[in-house]
Design goal:
Blueprint lengths: L1 H26 L7 H7 L15 H18 L6 E12 L9 E10 L4 E9 L10 E6 L18
Antiparallel strand pairs: 1-2, 2-3, 3-4
Length: about 160
């Protein structure tokens, strides 16, 4: 009988102590990361700034393929990009150090309706699927139907 009562008291004391520690941890003031955390634990991303050029065929083919998919799947349109021209770099890493490296580009795209349209895009380090590789964010002026990069795709440029 005495042994059962001692076990209950021990459990109650342990539960009370756990609640007390949880409340103390929850109410503790927030402080910045320590020297140890900054130098070993919270190292952050490391960018190597290895991005393809604006006229790289894999970047342009990504835009071409995704434009066709977007037009067909979401807008019930058979509009496609058939050619690119006057591709140039607008800016490279224009923001502060430590930001994600981006290469901003602009050019013209010939669409299947015979119109040359301005295309603005950025090549982003670690912007691909789950950050595995670089990715492309793009917009074709005049066919930004959901206004994601309005006005006139300027938000897709720098």
């Amino acid at each position: 009988m005495l042994n059962v009562r001692a076990k209950r008291n021990t459990r109650a004391l342990g539960a009370s102590l756990a609640v007390l520690l949880a409340v103390a941890a929850w109410s503790a003031p927030v402080s910045a990361a320590s020297w140890l955390e900054k130098n070993f634990y919270l190292s952050g991303p490391r960018f190597d700034s290895q991005l393809p050029a604006c006229d790289d065929s894999s970047a342009l083919s990504t835009i071409l393929r995704r434009f066709s998919t977007k037009e067909g799947r979401f807008w019930n349109s058979d509009l496609q990009i058939t050619d690119f021209d006057k591709i140039r770099e607008v800016a490279y890493r224009p923001w502060a150090d430590g930001t994600i490296p981006r290469r901003f580009c602009s050019g013209r795209a010939l669409t299947s309706d015979g119109h040359w349209r301005t295309v603005r895009y950025s090549i982003v380090e670690d912007g691909g699927m789950i950050g595995w590789s670089w990715g492309v964010q793009w917009c074709v002026v005049g066919v930004d139907r959901n206004w994601a990069y309005n006005p006139e795709c300027r938000a897709a440029g720098q």
